[in-house]
DNA sequence: GCAAGGTC
């Protein structure tokens, strides 16, 4: 039996080969410079295996000539126009390879990622292979991580391709094309005639672009329409030495009522307190506390951190991570998974970092007993592990170095222990009102030593004894004001898109770049932080669609989310 | 000249 295995990308074909062959294989080049064909015997199923890959989707979709040109038809006719499926220009060589390999095989085993797009790519592979060999048996290997036991199990117990999932993706592809092309042409033609500012530029519409823009506009309007309100609170503090020999420190006691928006009520309470401000300590509690180490790293988290900590645009972070992946320094950078597989082998990866001058000593500590299993998040895309370094990279510069360092420190932090400390809470009453002060002492920094992006600091509260009484240093009624929300940052926008199902790990950064390139969204810097504001055009587009009064506005995320998750 | 999703 000859089995042709087809993975979604070259790196997976190689990994599968190394596992199934035990390292004994031969390989052949193909016309595509990234793709190789690997040959070996697999005695477990008495079969000869050939493993190759595609490179993402094989086919593209577009309208025929009658509808492809912008002025060839009324945009609304694009909803009924035929849509052609064809092998893309770059896919021709890959298709040729698949066909010639399929002719020699008895069975096609599909090894695309085990997510919905993978099911669709698998159906493309199936169609091409069947066109070359009509009676080829088609099976699907199911695996959730590139781990030897799972890969062998998948090879020995293949299942069927899930055609319903592939069809759902096909429907989404066609809908996105029809809606995107029709609305874009309609908007562009209408607005170019009406507004001088958009002359010569495309006013695109996309089912991900518009909810993305919608988030920016929504926040902008919240800021614009914000009205500050005054509030009042009792400020209570005591100055006393931090320890028996120490200098005086001021301890602030926070009001349990936080603050009141009714001035008269706050004033009445304050009058009562100040008439006899003797303060009595009712309870002193010291308890152990932890600061949890971070979760394993997903693409979305990498982009948020990159934007917030490294000041790099989400798209720039992803591009760098992809380059480092292609150089063999990082695992696959597009993942939604924030849990390592229980069988994941950490030690060889930690060992590779032991030579680093900056974090090598910490890695050695993990090897010598400080290791602790990473926390498990709630997400698993069943295709890729969390992002982690696969090799030590010593010679990087600039932004590549920053991104690699962040990912590596994050990985080591995940394999370390939570930081440990103790928290003291001092409860007091004054004039019948309750106040409290808290203090923090860090006992063991643990993961914080390798992960400077997290801060955990607090001050020790001076000693207080239950039942003691004191005269506060300050007891005042103070006024504050509610403050306006901030404009969105890129990190905020990535979070909103992720939570609302707009785009994927691989495309979120692209959509943000698109709404900026189309000049729907403008970047504005304030104190070193980049904020996103809508342009007049951006606001106008969103308000226009909102005023149509659709039950699910195209500027809001509901519609897109439902298109993605419908089964 | 148009979308979003894969991928190098």
CATH architecture of the largest domain: 3-Layer(aba) Sandwich
**Beta fraction:** 15-25%
Major beta sheet, strand line-up: 14-11-12-13-10-9-15
CATH topology (fold) name of the largest domain:
Rossmann fold
Distance between the termini: 36 Å
Catalytic activity: ATP-independent breakage of single-stranded DNA, followed by passage and rejoining
Enzyme class: isomerase
Pfam family, one: Topoisom_bac
InterPro entries: Topo_IA, Topo_IA_2, Topo_IA_cen, Topo_IA_cen_sub1, Topo_IA_cen_sub2, Topo_IA_cen_sub3, Topo_IA_core_domain, Topo_IA_DNA-bd_dom
Textual characterization of the structure:
- Residues 162-567 form the Topo IA-type catalytic domain.
- Residues 2-144 form the Toprim domain.
- One of its GO terms (molecular function) is DNA topoisomerase type I (single strand cut, ATP-independent) activity.
- With 567 residues, the chain is α+β, with helices and mostly antiparallel strands.
- The protein folds into four domains: 2-168, Rossmann fold, CATH 3.40.50; 206-225 and 487-565, Topoisomerase I, domain 2 (Orthogonal Bundle), CATH 1.10.460; 230-293 and 419-481, Topoisomerase I, domain 3 (Distorted Sandwich), CATH 2.70.20; 299-414, Topoisomerase I, domain 4, CATH 1.10.290.
- It has 17 helices and 17 strands.
- The strands form four sheets. It has a seven-stranded antiparallel beta sheet with strand order 14-11-12-13-10-9-15, with helices on one face.
- Helix 4 (116-132) links the parallel strand 7 and strand 8 (137-140).
- Helix 9 (299-308) packs across helix 10, helix 9 (299-308) packs antiparallel against helix 14 (490-499) and helix 10 packs across helix 13 (398-414).
- It is flat, with a radius of gyration of 30 Å.
- It starts with a strand and ends with a helix.
- The model has no long low-confidence stretch (mean pLDDT 94).
- The structure holds one DNA strand of 8 nucleotides.
């Amino acid at each position: 039996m000859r089995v042709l295995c087809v993975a979604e990308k070259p790196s997976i074909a190689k990994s599968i080969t190394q596992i199934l062959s035990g390292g004994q294989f031969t390989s052949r080049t193909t016309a595509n410079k990234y793709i190789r064909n690997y040959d070996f015997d697999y005695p477990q199923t008495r079969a000869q295996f050939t493993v190759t890959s595609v490179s993402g989707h094989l086919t593209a979709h577009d309208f025929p000539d009658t509808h492809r040109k912008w002025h060839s038809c009324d945009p609304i006719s694009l909803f009924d126009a035929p849509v052609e499926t064809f092998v893309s220009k770059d896919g021709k060589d890959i298709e040729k390879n698949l066909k010639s390999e399929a002719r020699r095989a008895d069975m096609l085993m599909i090894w695309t990622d085990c997510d919905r797009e993978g099911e669709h790519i698998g159906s493309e592979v199936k169609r091409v292979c069947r066109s070359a060999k009509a009676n080829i048996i088609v099976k699907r290997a199911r695996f959730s991580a590139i781990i030897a036991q799972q890969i062998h199990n998948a090879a020995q117990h293949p299942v069927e391709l899930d055609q319903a999932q592939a069809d759902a993706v096909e429907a989404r592809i066609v809908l996105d094309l029809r809606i995107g092309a029709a609305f874009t042409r309609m908007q562009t033609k209408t607005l170019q005639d009406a507004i001088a500012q958009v002359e010569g530029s495309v006013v695109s519409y996309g089912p991900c672009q518009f909810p993305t823009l919608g988030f920016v506009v929504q926040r902008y309007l919240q800021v614009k329409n914000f009205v500050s309100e005054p509030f009042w609170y009792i400020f209570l503090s005591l100055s006393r030495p931090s320890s028996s020999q120490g200098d005086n420190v001021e301890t602030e006691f926070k009001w349990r009522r936080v603050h009141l928006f009714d001035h008269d009520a706050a004033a009445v309470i304050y009058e009562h307190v100040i008439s006899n401000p003797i303060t009595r300590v009712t309870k002193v509690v010291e308890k152990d506390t932890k600061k949890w180490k971070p979760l394993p790293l997903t693409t979305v988290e990498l982009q948020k951190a990159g934007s917030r900590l490294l000041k790099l645009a989400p798209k720039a972070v992803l591009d760098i991570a992809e380059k480092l992946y292609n150089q063999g320094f990082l695992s696959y950078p597009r993942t939604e998974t924030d849990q390592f597989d229980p069988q994941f082998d950490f030690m060889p990866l930690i060992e590779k970092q032991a030579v680093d001058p900056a974090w090598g000593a910490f890695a050695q500590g993990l090897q010598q007993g400080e290791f602790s299993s990473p926390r498990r998040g709630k997400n698993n895309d069943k295709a890729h592990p969390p992002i982690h370094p696969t090799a030590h990279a010593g010679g990087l510069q600039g932004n590549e170095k920053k991104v690699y360092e962040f990912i590596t420190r994050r990985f080591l932090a995940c394999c370390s222990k939570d930081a440990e400390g103790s928290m003291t809470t001092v409860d007091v009453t004054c004039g019948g009102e309750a106040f409290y002060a808290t203090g923090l002492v860090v006992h063991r920094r643990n993961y914080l030593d390798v992960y400077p992006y997290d801060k955990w600091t607090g001050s020790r509260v001076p000693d207080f004894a239950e039942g003691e009484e004191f005269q506060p240093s300050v007891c005042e009624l103070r006024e504050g004001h509610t403050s306006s929300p901030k404009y969105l940052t890129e990190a905020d926008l990535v979070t909103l898109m992720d939570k609302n199902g707009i785009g994927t790990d691989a495309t979120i950064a692209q959509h943000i770049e698109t709404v900026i390139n189309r000049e729907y969204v403008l970047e504005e810097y304030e104190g070193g932080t980049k904020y996103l504001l809508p342009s007049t055009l951006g606001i106008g587009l969103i308000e226009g669609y909102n005023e149509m009064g659709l039950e699910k506005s195209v500027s809001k995320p509901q519609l897109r989310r439902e298109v993605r998750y419908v089964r």
